[in-house]
Amino acid sequence: MHIAIAGNIGSGKTTLTSLLAKHYKWEPHFEDADENPYLNDFYNDMQRWSFNLQVYFLNNRFSQVQEFRNNNKNVIQDRTIYEDAYIFAPNLHAMGLMTSRDFESYFSLFKLMETFIAPPDLLIYLRASIPVLVEQISTRGREYEESIRLDYLKRLNERYEAWISTYDQGKLLVIDVDNINFLENKEDLGNVISKIDAEVHGLF
Is residue 143 pLDDT above 70, yes or no? Predict the structure, then answer.
């Protein structure tokens, strides 16, 4: 079984992935942000490095999904290949930070890859407001995220909402993280797990 967690930067994907992996004894797969050779350069010069960054992510997540289906384990994934293609890359293009030529090449590559992969059995979307995202980004203190602008987060949130409103690839669970704290409040985590149980039991 393949469970995936989607959400904007700072929405709590990595935290929830870790907590659920521990609870269900699923194998976690994280976004390798700290090992990404383009991330620091990208945040310093988005226009120059946007295409390189997105192709790196696309390749990385395509490899992950192929691995999931081949090893027959229950896995939980931090961020999906769909977010790269439908949110981050088109957002960079719309902001003038990726050329039309590069975006068309990127999206063509994604559509080809998509024919070789299956969507997650359950997609969990973490919905968060801009103030909550900013607070959580600040709390974790990643140096390369210090230069992220509010309008960038806002644009991403708008694209997430548009994508989720039309998502029809499989089961979807939306969790509003503004009013819960699944890291520090066991009751909040329990409520999230109950909602997941209700969805997952319907998969068997």
Answer: no
Amino acid identity at 181: N
- DSSP secondary structure string for all residues of 51-99: HHHHHHHHHHHHHHHHHHHHHT--EEEES-HHHIIIIIHHHHHHTTSS-
In the set 34, 41, 78, 178, the catalytic residue is 78
DSSP label of 35: G
CA atoms within 13 A of residue 118's CA, in its CB half-sphere: 12
**24 touches 76 (CB < 8 A):** yes
Number of H helices, E strands in the chain: 9, 5
The end-to-end CA distance of the chain, in Å, is 10
Instruction: Indicate whether 202 pLDDT > 90.
Output: no
pLDDT band at 136 (very low <50, low <70, confident <90, very high): confident
**In terms of C-beta density within 10 A (0-12 exposed, 13-18 middle, 19 or more buried), how is residue 177 classed?**
buried
Residues 6+ apart with CB under 8 A from 117: 62, 65, 66, 69, 81
> Domain residues for 65?
2-203
* 188 given a catalytic annotation: no
- Say how many domains are in the chain: 1
Residue 31 maps to which CATH number?
3.40.50.300
